[in-house]
Design a protein that fits this description.
The protein is of the alpha/beta class and 378 residues long. The chain is built from 12 helices and 15 strands. The strands form 4 sheets. Strands 1-9-8-5-4-2-3 form a 7-stranded mixed beta sheet, with helices on both faces. A 3-stranded antiparallel beta sheet has the order 7-6-13, with no helix packed on it.
Length: 378
């Protein structure tokens, strides 16, 4: 194999740091000079600004997005016999839900959006379901209003998993402002990513907010005065300072992602592949740009030879993961999620991705299908 002449990364933290490095260093210096590292002014300031950004009343910083889901569900005072409904194609979400102690129930997704919709929710509905977790997968907003009405009618809590969707828009409002609770992840690859782990929980409910503040730190009302069995899940000051720096750029960076996505769509439109595009009811933040292809492994290998990184989000639906075999589902239980898991492929996507790299990537994909057609003819 010849030497790779070009490298196109799935994401590029170094490119981001070149733009905001001085500000990040200044923010970290501020924390170091203060000498306060856990649940201090940086976290408090981030919570206020994040709540204001999404247009909700309260935010609670936690250690990661998985903890955000677990604590969010625990804050609802439900019974262990109650169930949580979530999509079958959202691998990371299943862990946060399961760790809450409630039963996990799954539903299939819409093949056009890769998200749940009212129809898939109704099909899976049972009386023990007390929470619906709506996951805005890849940053693409779920059509949430019909699900919200259904949840309200049936006295079900609605939680938005916005781990991939910070800054995504549904009908002129930011996602995270529709559910009873919204959960965010600040994993480094996210549109608003820390330089480590981090997460946040947002709500308009004062009772839930107070419970969440207890749950994130040993259930303590006062130091060493625990009133319930809580976790140790705290967002640290260093990560909060970094996130405050990056929050100022989020809207601009999301706009750049949308521009890159439009270019991808334009260049790939003539190929017989599926593309997860923005829905008519909102704007994706394009955390990921995802295509759907039949010969995925061969295409991945072909692109790797060209120096183009790709990834799969996610290769196996929840019900076919060994950890969740106890749920009792089998292959064929959620056919759309299973089909999606065999075809989805994430292409390079980040705000500083050069247009020339988008052209290079799309040309490589076209070359693959051209070679495939020639082989098929032969």
């Amino acid at each position: 194999m010849g030497k790779i002449s070009r490298q196109v990364n799935l994401t590029d933290f170094k490119a981001e740091y070149k733009v905001i490095g001085k500000e990040v260093n200044s923010a970290l210096k501020r924390v170091f000079e203060r000498g306060y590292y856990i649940l201090g002014p940086e976290v408090s300031n981030l919570e206020k600004k994040l709540a204001s950004f999404v247009d909700v009343k309260y935010a609670v910083g936690v250690a990661c997005g998985t903890d955000a889901l677990t604590l969010a569900i625990k804050s609802l005072d439900l019974k262990h016999t109650d169930a949580v409904l979530l999509p079958a194609n959202v691998y990371p979400t299943a862990f946060g839900v399961s760790l809450s102690g409630l039963k996990v129930k799954l539903c299939d997704v819409d093949p056009q959006t890769s998200n749940i919709n009212l129809e898939t929710v109704k099909k899976a509905y049972a009386k023990d379901i007390k929470v619906i977790v709506v996951v805005h997968l890849y940053g693409n907003p779920v059509d949430i209003e019909p699900i919200k009405k259904f949840a309200k009618k049936n006295k079900i809590y609605l939680i938005e998993d916005c781990a991939q969707a910070v800054g995504s828009i549904y009908k002129e409002k930011l996602v995270g402002s529709f559910g009873d609770i919204a959960c965010f992840s600040f994993y480094p690859t996210k549109n608003l990513g820390a330089y480590g782990d981090g997460g946040a929980i947002l709500t308009n409910n004062l009772k839930i907010y107070k419970k969440l503040k207890l749950l994130r730190m040993y259930g303590e009302k006062e130091r060493y005065q625990s009133v319930l069995l809580g976790h140790n899940s705290r967002l640290d000051e260093l990560q909060a300072a970094i996130l405050l720096t990056k929050l100022k750029y989020l809207k601009t960076w999301n706009q750049k992602r949308r521009k890159i996505a439009r270019k991808y769509v334009e260049l790939l439109k003539d190929l017989s592949i599926g593309i997860v595009k923005e829905n008519p009811w909102g704007k994706s933040n394009y955390h990921l740009f995802v295509i759907k292809v039949s010969q995925r492994s061969k295409l991945m290998a072909f692109l790797k030879e060209k120096g183009i990184q790709t990834a799969i989000h996610y290769p196996t639906p929840i019900h076919l993961i060994k950890t969740f075999s106890h749920l009792g589902f089998k292959k064929g239980s959620f056919p759309i999620s299973e089909k999606e898991s065999e075809k989805v492929l994430s292409l390079p996507m980040y705000p500083f991705l050069k247009e020339s790299d988008v052209y290079y990537t799309c040309k490589a994909i076209k070359d693959f299908f051209k070679e495939k057609r020639l082989l098929d003819i032969q």
